[in-house]
Recover the amino acids of this structure.
């Protein structure tokens, strides 16, 4: 909704907006939102919430959005026809105000939804502010329910947020950045549209198990950086191939993080991750160091 706010008017009834396709007026209510998701049949469905950008200076509007999201959750719960097969997640709002976030957490937890989302972030706020909000919310949420931080997809954001107590994430970034010719790797993001890759016949990332990077004799496509360079500026298939790689990379990263947690070695996992991503002279950002120290993880310790 944030991306369409210029076309929308939020009232207690719901969200009135003009169709981006034909300009016709439309109304999305909490009840209609749930009805649509019941029809789709997804395992996880989301409440309709009132969300504004975290960078907004309008404190009163932020509080209104937070409290309205609580009221709308009640309407969503009543409208939900398939609670046995579809898990309704509430969405915590409150901007960067930790008191509002705490109040919203308390109220949302009372509703006892199967999962809990932390919404309204990744809107341009400073990373340290983001971390404070995530830490505040996860500290107030039940440990036996999934915590889902919405709109987060950068690898370093994911692994730090896991350390702060988050479990689930979603983001358009891995696919969006693929459309610009960017490959997500353990060593950072590579712009494969750059001429320096024109004659680089190595895989997008060595040892990656995605179908693009795996050699043809191992069942993969054997795609090289040079081939992506050749395609990226001319053919959409380049974006398709990088999308496969980028999504595979992030899924593999989450699988590795989960394994490290189960084996009780997540701090060591984080140290290895950041030392590979930030090779000198690049230095690990201060917000990362500070956030992890807050949960007793020191990246400087071997």
């Amino acid at each position: 909704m944030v991306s369409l706010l210029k076309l929308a008017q939020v009232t207690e009834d719901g969200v009135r907006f003009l169709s981006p396709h034909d300009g016709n007026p439309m109304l999305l209510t909490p009840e209609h939102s749930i009805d649509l998701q019941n029809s789709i049949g997804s395992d996880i469905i989301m409440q309709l919430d009132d969300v504004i950008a975290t960078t907004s200076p309008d404190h009163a509007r932020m509080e209104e959005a937070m409290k309205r999201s609580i009221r709308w959750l009640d309407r969503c719960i009543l409208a939900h026809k398939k609670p046995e097969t579809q898990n309704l997640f509430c969405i915590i709002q409150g901007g960067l105000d930790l008191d509002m976030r705490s109040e919203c957490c308390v109220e949302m937890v009372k509703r006892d939804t199967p999962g809990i989302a932390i919404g309204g972030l990744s809107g341009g706020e400073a990373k340290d502010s983001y971390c404070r909000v995530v830490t505040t919310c996860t500290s107030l949420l039940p440990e036996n329910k999934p915590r889902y931080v919405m709109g987060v997809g950068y690898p370093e954001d994911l692994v730090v947020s896991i350390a702060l107590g988050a479990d689930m994430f979603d983001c358009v970034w891995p696919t969006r950045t693929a459309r610009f010719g960017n490959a997500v790797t353990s060593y950072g993001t590579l712009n494969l549209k750059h001429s320096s890759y024109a004659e680089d016949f190595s895989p997008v990332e060595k040892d990656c198990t995605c179908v693009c990077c795996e050699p043809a004799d191992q069942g993969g496509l054997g795609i090289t950086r040079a081939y992506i360079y050749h395609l990226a500026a001319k053919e959409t298939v380049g974006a398709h191939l990088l999308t496969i790689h980028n999504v595979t990379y992030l899924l593999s990263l989450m699988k590795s993080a989960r394994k490290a947690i189960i084996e009780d070695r997540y701090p060591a996992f984080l140290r290895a991750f950041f030392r590979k991503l930030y090779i000198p002279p690049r230095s690990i950002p201060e917000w990362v160091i500070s956030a992890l120290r807050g949960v007793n993880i020191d990246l400087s310790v071997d």
Summary: The mean pLDDT is 95. Residues 87 and 163 are 25 Å apart (CA to CA). The two ends are 44 Å apart (CA to CA). The beta strands are 8-10, 15-18, 25-28, 44-46, 87-92, 115-118, 147-149, 168-169, 182-185, 188-191.
